[in-house]
Design a protein that fits this description.
Helix content of chain B: 25-40%
Structural class of chain B: alpha+beta
Number of strands of chain B: 5
CATH topology of the largest domain in chain A: Globin-like
Number of domains of chain B: 1
Structural class of chain A: alpha/beta
Number of helices of chain B: 4
Distance between the termini of chain A: 78 Å
CATH topology of chain B: Heat Shock Protein 90
Radius of gyration of chain A: 32 Å
Number of helices of chain A: 11
Strand order of the largest sheet of chain B: 1-2-3-5-4
Oligomer: heterotrimer
CATH class of chain B: Alpha Beta
Strand order of the largest sheet of chain A: 1-2-3-4-5
CATH class of the largest domain in chain A: Mainly Alpha
CATH superfamily of chain B: Histidine kinase-like ATPase, C-terminal domain
Strand content of chain A: 5-15%
Order of helices and strands of chain B: EHHEEHHEE
CATH architecture of chain B: 2-Layer Sandwich
CATH superfamily of the largest domain in chain A: Globins
Chain lengths: ~280, ~140, ~120
């Protein structure tokens, strides 16, 4: 396989400033510098060019051991993803270097057409593979960001609060789907273990509708809490929801329900005073 | 759909103690694959139920396990197979509370609720093959 | 033969299950416990399962049996320390252990047992 000639690397090194100017111009005219500070861009472009020249010199192989270059690009992609650049803008960082580099090679190998063609191909393949690598890295970062946001959203929607010594409350707001019900149930159960709370109140005032699935999830949560040795009260059961539950033919007779959170807390404190909150 | 097998193995399930070994094996593979604790507990419990069935009703058999990959998802798949008497009425066997032995009748139905996929393949005199899958 | 130790604490018996039990071991425990209740006239039994990372229908059935048997022999059984993942799995399995008393931990279970025994 053809490799980059020493003379090519030499040319890159000797014409760094000119390459950089042209590269940055191309980036700017294509909107790939949005939200970027001037000095950051300078640092990134010159850093990459430096690495490219060094890495390739050592590696001696266009696609091979340019490990450092790759790591540099992964960091770059991550910062771009966080700045809100899209994958196209991120990849353009690499592709915009092609023009300036090609015209440089044309000048250097003006009288050696065979070598020019070969070197153009090598440079082109190298930049393409680095560009693809950048896109892949960008994708991975974006996915990580999305995953983290999803988790944060789930956590935000399931706040378990301590209401009293030994009493936890879980105010549910919004529609419950299967996945959210599961997260809610698990975090409440874990908090019971962590805090040693004897009574948990699940407040469903903010839940617009209860269907069979949600009602069953509630029932399972209450049962699991009882198995662990704590107690559960459901509060905020509005008339429509009570009707739905009866209509669905679900048996909630084993569950303590209260009209609102205040009544539930009152009952919880009373039970704690009696001191026999263990179930059975 | 293409299913890739990343890892696989087999375990004899002949005597009662093997049920414990089957559980431990399932736990080891599942935690190596990074399965969440609740999902892992469900899988291990299902394995325990099915391995016990293999010993008690199937007269002993084997558990084949696989770590599989399908459309980017990783999952654990277990096959419990025995050469026992088989099950005549599979619909009845998958009814809560029904049992041919002295158990609670929750083995098969319970195990089915604890996994994502459940496949029962049996006939009188033909032995029993149960495949379960839990995705990560 | 392999056995799970049973500790006596006053009028109560304490069992801490720390091993991955095979079925025979569970049956032995059931037998040993009923035997000890009758010999010591214990008024209560605490079964600590906080170290158990799985309870299947067999172990669940053993727990329910111990609870029922001890009640007949005038002793209360408390199952304490069930892990969240275990509780969720048991419910999904369809085993809700009605009639079995539970508490968060040994200390809490002991308090409740004392109160109940005193009230009889």
């Amino acid at each position: 396989m053809a490799t980059l000639q020493g003379s090519t690397l030499e040319a890159i090194k000797n014409n760094q400033d000119q390459l950089l100017d042209q590269w940055i111009n191309s980036l700017e005219s294509n909107g790939a510098t949005r939200n970027l500070k001037e000095h950051e861009l300078r640092q990134q472009t010159s850093g990459f060019l430096q690495l490219l020249a060094n890495g390739l010199q050592q590696a001696d192989d266009a696609t091979g051991n340019a490990e450092e270059v790759r790591r540099f690009l992964e960091k770059l992609s991550a910062s771009r993803a966080q700045l809100g650049h899209d994958s196209h803008q991120t990849a353009y960082f690499i592709f915009a270097l092609k023009g300036p580099l090609f015209s440089l090679l044309q000048r250097v190998y003006a009288d050696q057409p065979a070598l020019l063609a070969e070197q153009l191909l090598v440079v082109s393949e190298l930049l393409d593979s680095l560009g693809m690598h950048t896109v892949r890295a960008y994708q991975i970062t974006r996915e990580a960001v999305i995953r983290r946001q999803q988790e944060e959203l789930l956590e935000l929607s399931t706040p378990v609060v301590k209401l009293w010594d030994g009493v936890l409350a879980l105010p549910l707001i919004g529609t419950l789907d299967s996945q959210r019900s599961q997260t809610v149930m698990e975090s409440l159960l874990q908090r019971i273990v962590d805090t040693g709370a004897e009574i948990a109140i699940i407040d469903i005032t903010g839940v617009p509708t209860v269907d069979t699935l949600v009602a069953q999830h509630l029932l399972k949560t209450v049962t699991a809490i009882r198995l662990m040795g704590a107690d559960c009260i459901i509060s905020g059961v509005r008339p429509q929801i009570a009707q739905t539950i009866v209509h669905l033919g679900l048996d909630l007779s084993s569950i303590t329900t209260k009209a609102n959170l205040a009544d539930a807390l009152k009952l919880a404190i009373k039970r704690l005073d009696v001191g026999d909150s263990a179930r059975g | 759909m293409n299913v890739n097998v990343n890892q696989s193995g087999s375990l004899a399930v002949r005597v009662e103690q093997d049920v414990v070994l089957a559980r431990q094996q399932a736990r080891k593979i599942a935690s190596e694959q990074g399965m969440r604790l609740v999902d892992l507990t469900k899988l291990v419990t299902a394995v325990s139920e099915l391995a016990r069935n293999t010993v008690v009703y199937g007269g002993g058999g084997d558990m084949d396990w696989q770590v599989i990959e399908q459309s980017g998802r990783i999952g654990l798949r277990m096959l419990f197979r025995d050469e026992g008497p088989g099950i005549a009425d599979t619909r009845l066997a998958l009814t809560d509370g029904w049992t041919s032995g002295s158990g609670l009748g929750l083995g098969l139905t319970g195990a089915r609720r604890l996994v994502d996929e459940f496949d029962l393949d049996t006939a009188p005199g033909q032995g029993t093959r149960i495949t379960i899958t839990r995705w990560i | 033969m392999e056995r799970i130790p049973i500790l006596q604490m006053g009028e109560f018996l304490l069992v801490t299950i720390q091993v991955d039990m095979h079925d025979q071991l569970a049956l032995n425990l059931q037998e040993d416990l009923t035997d000890r209740i009758s010999r010591t006239s214990a008024r209560g039994v605490l079964i600590d399962i906080s170290a158990l990372d799985m309870v299947d229908s067999f172990i669940g059935r053993m727990i329910a049996s111990i609870s029922g048997l001890s009640r007949i022999m005038d002793a209360e059984t408390m199952v304490v320390g069930m892990q969240p993942a275990v509780a969720i799995t048991l419910v999904e399995l369809g085993l809700t252990l009605p009639g079995v008393s539970t508490a968060l931990n040994v200390e809490r279970g002991m308090q409740v047992l004392r109160k109940r025994v005193a009230g009889r």
